[in-house]
From TrEMBL:
Domain (MYND-type): residue spans on this chain: 191-229
Biased composition annotated in UniProt, kind: Acidic residues: 25-51
Organism per entry: Ilex paraguariensis
Name of the protein described by the UniProt record: MYND-type domain-containing protein
Sample GO molecular function, one term: zinc ion binding
Keywords: Metal-binding, Zinc, Zinc-finger
Keyword Ribosomal protein among record annotations: no
Taxonomy, superkingdom: Eukaryota
């Protein structure tokens, strides 16, 4: 189903995502929504209108080509390593680690979302990282609810990077997307283990392997480098750091614990509306369990739980998601679709932009379906969330720092008590 729909927007990635951002921002949508009998919007503490704002849905696919996810193609991608937009001035220091366990954060996904109204946001990518430990995410919940802490401690971090059309890293012409596109120069040398963060520390044995942290040096040493280090230091090419300089190829990564890599492709949510309403018989099979059956069983269930906001919210969330159950991302600068009514932030919980002091607005949310594609187990200790909502500076402000930290709000499933803590 997704393949067919996507064939219509198979243009170059910058084009298709540019249209994503534009349509989400500018399209007026005055659809009456008439299927929302148990709308949870009135649980919102803001007084937004009930109008539906267009949402672009993100789906994961295996990359079409070896080169599809290279940074010069401005991809949206999940898992693997980030395709850093500014490949030189990467986040460093405390920004790269989980503030609880101090492990370097793992790359979750990046969304290419340029804003056409400003020259400085001709290219614009948001990067999301998180610690893979559920224990850290639980601690993160407690920190998240602290309003305006002096030094926020997080296990989920978001960075915004943007570039004008004319910049020193890429051609000002759109990529051709045939495998011949090259960036205008090499990026910073990255960690040999995680391939994610800057590899500032050099292995003193071979002087080839590079690391973002002592933790990754130690883990690489134990897993394979103990042997490889000796071999590469006696090999004649020891001083040739070819793997680092060959910027046309994807980064070689030793770690086998990165999440599986996917391309994120997107579709307007309304495409799925049409499909459902065109033919009701077909709609039922598409929507399957949570769609039409909800009318009978779940509705009566919900009537009996009239006061239970979470239950109503969850049913409404499921109904909306069921239009396209494989979605992993919802992009639309309006407000998140909250799975639960508890554990939602109020306006005061969303901090102001730490660079310009202006307001931050919701931009996109990540769904737990992504964990399924990553092959994360469904154990008690496994990483899990109901949704991650990303808030960004509404002005997409320009400061000297290449990677600006934005704000993520994580709502956990069945953690409604954290709202009270
Ligand atoms: Zn951690
Ligand atoms: Zn590393
Ligand atoms: Zn070495
Ligand atoms: Zn700002």
């Amino acid at each position: 189903m997704f393949k067919e729909l996507n064939s219509s927007i198979n243009g170059d990635s910058s084009e298709k995502l540019r249209s994503l951002a534009i349509s989400s921002l500018e399209e007026e949508d005055d659809d009456n929504d008439n299927d929302d009998e148990y709308d949870v919007d009135d649980y919102d503490d803001d007084d937004d209108e009930e109008e539906e704002v267009p949402v672009a849905l993100g789906f994961v696919e295996k990359p079409k080509n070896r080169w599809s996810l290279l940074r010069q193609l401005f991809p949206s991608k999940a898992g693997g390593v980030p395709a850093w937009l500014d490949p030189i001035n990467l986040p460093s220091g405390r920004s790269c680690v989980c503030d609880f366990c101090r492990e370097p954060l793992q790359f979750l996904l990046q969304v290419y979302a340029p804003l056409s109204e400003k020259e400085s946001t001709f290219h614009r990518t948001l990067f999301v990282f998180m610690c893979s430990s559920m224990g850290c995410l639980l601690q993160d919940q407690h920190e998240q609810w602290k309003r305006h802490p002096e030094k926020p401690s997080r296990s989920v971090k978001v960075f915004r990077c943007q570039l004008p059309r004319s910049n020193s890293f890429y051609s000002s012409e759109a990529p051709i997307n045939d495998g011949t596109d090259k960036p205008s120069g090499t990026g910073a040398a990255l960690c040999s283990w995680c391939g994610t963060w800057k590899g500032d520390k050099l292995c003193s044995g071979c002087r080839r392997a590079r690391y973002c942290s002592e933790k990754h040096q130690a883990i690489h040493w134990r897993s394979s480098h103990k042997v490889d280090c000796r071999q590469s230091s006696i090999s004649p090419q020891a001083s040739d750091s070819s793997s680092i300089n060959n910027f046309a190829e994807t980064q070689q990564v030793a770690s086998n614990t990165l999440w599986a890599q996917y391309e994120i492709i997107n579709e307007d949510e309304c495409e799925f509306d049409t499909e459902v309403s065109d033919d009701n018989g077909y709609a039922n099979s598409l929507v399957s369990r949570s769609g039409s059956r909800m009318d009978e069983t779940v509705k009566s269930l919900m009537d009996s739980f009239e006061g239970d906001g979470d239950r109503k919210s969850w049913a409404s969330f499921q109904e909306r998601i069921a239009k396209a159950p494989q979605q992993v991302l919802r992009y639309g600068r309006a407000k998140p679709l909250w799975p639960m009514s508890s554990g939602r932030p109020s306006k005061a919980d969303i901090p102001k932009c730490s660079y310009c002091g202006g307001p931050c607005g919701f931009e996109f949310q990540i769904l737990p379906q992504l964990l399924y594609y990553f092959g994360v187990k469904n154990d008690v200790d496994s990483l899990d969330w109901a949704t991650i909502a990303v808030y960004t500076c509404e002005a997409s402000c320009e400061v000297t720092m290449a990677y600006k930290e934005e704000f993520a709000w994580v709502q956990l499933a069945s953690q409604s008590t954290t709202a009270l803590s």
